[in-house]
Write a structure and sequence with these properties.
Blueprint: E1 2-5, H1 17-32, H2 36-60, H3 68-72, H4 84-101, H5 109-128, E2 130-133, H6 144-147, E3 153-155, E4 162-164, H7 172-183, H8 189-201, H9 206-224, H10 229-237, H11 243-252, H12 261-276, H13 287-298
Parallel strand pairs: 1-2
Antiparallel strand pairs: 3-4
Length: about 300
């Protein structure tokens, strides 16, 4: 089988190169009262960043991407609306299945990331006949956390630098797989959601499979709650979920998670950015993702 290795050299830097480019002059000014040292660091970081991006771009030119419509019978622009009754059925059925296989995730994040990345690589290769091998490095913090306070993780689509901002328990393998999809060149959020789910759902590792089930249940609940945290709690309490799994679902959408003016503005900006890149907006994370799976499964493929 053909193998393509994308270097992702920026992901191995101790500090995010993007953060250094933006923050070094300010930090230098605040710490030593001069901007020149910071600008020198900024220039060095910019050079390393540009070199990493060019190297990754050159390697990525030989990648055969999955044609979603041909392979799955559905893509960003071709989906059937999932009936509400079917959403309730999926929540009940998949919640019960999740609890039947549940195992606490105790692997360190770097070990888990390696396992998730290998599973995703193998799944994509089973479709394309090509292994696209990438870095498994994941950061815990970048400046993107301040810019997008509503986000759980982020991925610099140019350098492949990934950060996951907090522990999410049962959801973590899917979140990692989603970001690794971006690193492998699948930039649309719905495509990353779908590939991450399909790769993990077919895994023999229960800790990976349960993450896929949890993500699908959560996204159906987000469609059903109509953006009402109180409604979300009611729907959640009616599921078979219990114990630490139930706690993970509650933490992912806390009862006081009401958007403030800054969060609302950033979400609207991100939604517009997604639409400009041929996506449907933030709805691709939940309604689009679940509609895609409904269409794919209904097609018999």
């Amino acid at each position: 089988m053909e193998t393509i290795r994308i270097p992702n050299s920026a992901t191995y830097s101790p500090v995010s190169l993007t953060d250094l480019m933006f923050a070094a002059p300010l930090a230098s000014r605040l710490l030593i009262g001069a901007t020149l040292p910071g600008r020198l660091v900024q220039a060095a970081a910019a050079g390393a960043y540009a070199g990493s991006v060019l190297s990754d771009w050159a390697s990525r030119r030989g990648v055969r991407k999955i044609d979603f419509l041909e392979t799955f019978g559905s893509d960003v622009k071709h989906m059937d609306e999932m009936p509400e009754a079917r959403r309730f059925e999926d929540v009940e059925r998949l919640s019960a299945e999740l609890m039947s296989i549940h195992e606490p995730v105790r692997r360190e994040r770097d070990i888990l990331a390696g396992d998730v990345n290998e599973r995703l690589t193998s799944y994509i290769a089973s479709i394309t006949g090509q292994r696209v091998e990438t870095s498994s490095s994941v950061r815990e913090m970048t400046l993107a956390r301040l810019i997008m306070p509503f986000a759980i993780g982020s991925c610099d689509i140019l350098s492949g630098d990934i950060a996951v901002f907090r522990s999410t328990g049962v959801f973590e393998p899917h979140i990692l797989a989603h970001e690794f999809c971006h690193r492998k060149g699948y930039l649309k959020e719905l495509e990353a959601q779908a590939l991450a789910y399909l790769a993990l759902e077919g895994s023999r590792d229960p800790q990976l499979r349960q993450a896929a089930l949890a993500e699908r249940v959560y996204r159906n609940l987000r469609v059903l709650d109509r953006d009402d945290p109180g409604r979300y709690r009611e729907l959640l309490d009616a599921t078979p979920l219990s114990g630490t799994v139930l706690d993970d679902f509650r933490r992912l959408r806390p009862p006081d998670q009401r958007p403030n003016a800054f969060t609302t503005a950033m979400r609207e900006l991100y939604d517009s950015r997604m639409k400009l890149t041929g996506q449907n907006g933030l709805s691709d994370y939940d309604r689009g993702f679940t509609n895609f799976l409904y269409t794919y499964e209904s097609s018999g493929r």
